[in-house]
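Thread: quick sanity check before group meeting

JM: Hey all, I'm pulling together slides for Thursday and realized we never actually wrote out the predicted structure for the chain we discussed last week. Dropping the sequence here so it's in one place. If anyone has concerns about the input, flag it before I start.
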Amino acid sequence: MSSSAEVARPATKLVLVVDETLPTGHAVNAAAVLGLSVGARLADSLGADGKDASGGVHPGLNPHPVPVVTAGREQLRELRQKAAERPDLLVVGFSEVARRARAYDDYLATLAETPAEDVDYAGIAVYGPRNRVTALTKRFPLL
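JM (edit): ok, ran it. Output follows.
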């Protein structure tokens, strides 16, 4: 592909990092929860609706790639800490407290009783300037 035909890379990036020990179904659920949580916080995160050749309407999708990678439990904790120190990044954590709760009120009550150092993560979403997000997540393998 010639440089004139290349698509410009977006200035921002979103990476979802899930616990490498989670079974596939739980990992996919963690990624979905994180994606929804980040998407709700971002204005203009969807492309335009599209129409197929038969006139059917297809709701707009996120137009940018969203890599889902894996990391160990300690790596997730370190990632969250490092990313949270950067004011230019949006960091959303899906904790084990949340994953195991059966109702949102139960999650909030249990979280309120859990010290920060005891919060383990099923996944972390990091969104922000492409170079900053890449620097924090490039070492993790794809799911």
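AS: nice. The longest strand covers residues 121-129. Residues 26 and 39 are 20 Å apart (CA to CA).
JM: adding both to the slides.
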